[in-house]
């Protein structure tokens, strides 16, 4: 447990930051439960190699960051403007020596954090992506799409590496070599949650169940090569994985880049509903 006292004329409140543990997210503050779908990465980060994982003593603020990655920040919507400002300022002061590479949070919180942190540290920031979080509690069946789903196996490493390279360029604008994605493909296959949609014997789409938390399972790495798009393959594979998740008694969720209206439309057509926007901001 760490006591952090803010300095400054308007920052006299003493704020208690304590460790954020995975078990804290099993029964979190009720206001986090309302925002949990959009903040699924807290479950992942707190179980991994953390640079920081903190929460306020009252549970209405959380921050978690994996080593060398952007941090995730959540503040309860129940907090008033003064409380939000004080808490964000306190967090920025705790992070002043860390040179945080970026932040993910709801758009208003992300902007307020970045403007405060930039003024304090003399850095700049820019938005890299704006996402919508979606959940699905009842999936609509996909009819008339040829092919079938199957788990990815070791024989699929080369084609999955091609798909991952395409996904990186489409999603992040970062061209990478197929060779660099071979180890990633091997890890995803070994985890046992990556699936392919086959048309005949040809893999035409992929999707992955990235993580399961107490109430949700997150789908990611949804990718269809350009020559196979707009044929229903992505809808089919995401629909099948969503059905699998629902049979496990969990709610399916995923993030979609808001600059990709087609993908957002695909998810809504399957029965996914909007659960909150997330701004992904780079600090440099």
Automatic annotation (TrEMBL):
Keywords: Transferase. Residues 147-284 form the N-acetyltransferase domain. SUPFAM superfamilies: Acyl-CoA N-acyltransferases (Nat). One of its GO terms (molecular function) is acyltransferase activity, transferring groups other than amino-acyl groups. PROSITE patterns: GNAT. The keyword Cell membrane does not apply. This is GNAT family N-acetyltransferase. The lineage of its organism: Bacteria, Bacillati, Bacillota, Bacilli, Bacillales.
